[in-house]
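Hi, here's the filled form for the chain we discussed.

Project: internal
Contact: R.S.
Residues: 136
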Amino acid sequence: MVKRPVAVAVSCWFLVIGSLFALVSAFLGRHDPAMLAAMGDGAIPAEVQYAILLFSQGITLVAALAMLQRQRGARTVYLVWGVIDIALCLATLPVKMDVLPGALMFAVICAFLYSPKSNAWFSPRKAANDACMTPA
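And the returned structure, exactly as it came back:
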């Protein structure tokens, strides 16, 4: 059996832990006046922003856990939702530079998830070959 590439493991666990922290932080800060004031500057209401945040972190968490289970489609879900999320943030946030750190992190994680070693690990043909090569 081919071992999971370190880049995939680190990226996925980073996404799992980051999503859990973001979900807890959003839940605990949902009535914080400073946070609500900052979110009030956006183009959409704070309640909708919270809903998008919860949905986004939920997708990220599920996709990261699925990637750890070698589910190839989870990479695509993470990539597509990440692009949609960045576009949504750019369209609604008043300060566009606030999107840059997250967008850079997204690009780095996608580079790891779509590297040649990661592609080989996620490949169904490679996985089928691994099953055939088990010692008898």
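Let me know if anything looks off before we file it.
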